[in-house]
Design brief:
alpha/beta; Rossmann fold; seven-stranded mixed beta sheet; 35% helix; 7 strands; 198 residues
């Protein structure tokens, strides 16, 4: 068993104009997890984000949605991790992933940031790439047959046929988070990846 997750970070951009965009898939999942853990997000300006606090098996679990915009996400994650003494291995980041199709999800620890500015900033703030990432597939404009530039694509809402796949990943992710909060990543990975469409 690994160290259980103590800090769950959903990535996205703040503000109503971004709420429904693909880049906010991490926020969507974080909102559902807060509901599952019966926790409420409150704005904590000192941590540059909305923070929700829950108790799971007698342990404190924090949820965070940074309000710094995606490329400065590390500012909020670093501040919260330092204050609550959370190690990088105890951090789970939920984020959209261009390299996975809608309906696919991937859980992994460490590795590069593949040009994802939110991940890049978090890695710099934590001084380590060893945090966990739950990658929510949103597809890539080329694989989906769209002519949009990537920057434009991530800042638009998913099309109806993509939304179903993303909603499915969010449901499956909600089901495996309890295992991660126990530190059972083998079970969480098996369960999550087992649901990926081929």
């Amino acid at each position: 068993m690994s160290a259980p997750i103590r800090l769950i970070v959903g990535l996205g951009n703040p503000g109503p104009e971004y709420e429904a965009t693909r880049h906010n898939a991490g926020f969507w999942l974080a909102d559902h997890l807060a509901d599952d853990l019966r926790a409420t997000f409150n704005l904590e300006k000192g941590f540059s984000g909305f923070v929700a606090k829950a108790r799971v098996d007698g342990e404190n679990v924090l949820l965070l949605k940074p309000i710094t915009y995606m490329n400065r996400s590390g500012q909020a994650v670093g501040a919260l991790a330092r204050f609550y003494k959370v190690a990088p291995e105890e951090v789970l980041v939920l984020h959209d992933e261009l390299d996975l199709l809608p309906g696919q999800a991937k859980l992994k620890q460490g590795g590069g940031h593949a040009g994802h500015n939110g991940l890049k900033d978090i890695q710099a703030a934590l001084g380590s790439p060893n945090f966990w990432r739950l990658r929510i597939g949103i597809g890539h404009p080329r694989t989906l047959g769209l002519q949009q530039q990537v920057a434009d694509f991530v800042l638009h809402p998913p099309r109806r046929e993509e939304q179903g796949g993303i909603d499915d990943v969010i449901s499956r992710s909600r089901a495996v988070v309890p295992a991660m909060l126990r530190g059972d990543f083998a079970q969480a990975t098996r369960q999550l990846h087992g649901g990926n469409p081929a």
